[in-house]
Write a structure and sequence with these properties.
By secondary structure, the protein is an alpha/beta fold. The protein contains 9 helices and 6 strands. It has a domain of about 130 residues: Nucleotidyltransferase, domain 5 (2-Layer Sandwich), CATH 3.30.420.10.
Length: about 280
């Protein structure tokens, strides 16, 4: 109790960053963040500051080593980021927020329909040659994100591979991951047509519906259902850490995408009201 009061006083002394959580947003996440184990050394750093540091890296795109000094040490933050991803904490936070947002939207917590798509992004020099490749269609050398969303555009599954992996092959792996939590109906574009449709029906017990561009239509066209997942991919790259792939491990890339969605969903569930504490009281 005393430690939490001290941590709260320390937070008041610093100027918040736009990526910081409000108290209401932290209350959504706090129950799923593991506390320090009993019997060990007392925790030095507030768990809320750890989460806010991860969101800061995600939103601003800075490297771990360039975290501002008013956050915990970068080694500590990265250590929690890695351990929470490996132990499933990141998934639990993400999935719980998605269920709450679906419930608030009047939907069942378990999705009944969704979409699959892929996004190729350039890989930074921190991405090893063994996990990067060349996407000839997009002319991108880097990695590819195979994403499955629900009908609201909320993330269900993300799989990161080398960009050289075909959409169909990545889609097969992503839908295999999604079959226990995902819908019976999945929409996809023409890149997923062919044998994958029958494979998904047999192995995943899903109907893969191919949404094609109208005949004779040239250039960009908004397709039914498909625009929702395109919007999700746009949400993801708004976080500067995700406009390229900077992670050495594909698993860390997947975790960063989940943290981007965690930040988005907390803002949806508990939007900041009125003036932020870092904004001036004078009119702009």
């Amino acid at each position: 109790m005393i430690r939490s009061v001290v941590a709260r006083r320390k937070r008041r002394k610093r100027t918040p960053y736009p990526s910081d959580l409000t108290d209401a947003q932290w209350e959504l996440i706090a129950p799923m963040v593991p506390a320090a184990l009993p019997g060990g050394r007392p925790a030095i750093h507030d768990r809320r500051r750890i989460v806010e540091a991860i969101l800061y890296v995600n939103r601003t795109g800075c490297s771990w080593r360039q975290l501002p000094h008013d956050f915990p040490p970068w080694q500590t933050v990265f250590g929690y980021f890695q351990r929470w991803n490996e132990s499933g904490v990141t998934d639990r936070i993400h999935d719980a927020l998605r269920a709450k947002l679906r419930d608030r939207s009047g939907r069942d917590p378990m999705a009944s329909a969704g979409m699959v798509d892929a996004q190729a992004v350039k890989g930074a020099d921190t991405v090893g040659t063994e996990t990067r490749g060349w996407d000839g269609g997009k002319r991108v050398h880097g990695r590819k994100r195979h994403v499955v969303t629900d009908s609201l555009g909320l993330l269900v599954v993300v799989l990161v591979t080398a960009a050289s992996v075909q959409d169909r092959d990545g889609g097969r792996l992503a839908l295999s991951r999604a079959k226990t939590v995902m819908p019976s109906m999945v929409w996809a574009d023409g890149g997923y047509a062919g044998r994958l449709v029958a494979w998904v029906a047999e192995h995943c017990r899903m109907t893969l519906d191919i949404v094609r561009k109208p005949k004779g239509k040239l250039g960009f066209s908004v397709l039914p259902h498909r625009w929702l997942i395109e919007r999700t991919l746009a949400w993801i790259v708004r976080c500067r850490r995700l406009d390229h792939d900077y992670e050495r491990l594909p698993a860390h890339s997947e975790a960063m995408i989940k943290w981007a969605m965690i930040g988005l969903m907390t803002r949806r569930l508990a939007p900041a009201r009125g003036r932020h504490p870092w904004q001036s009281t004078r009119a702009a």
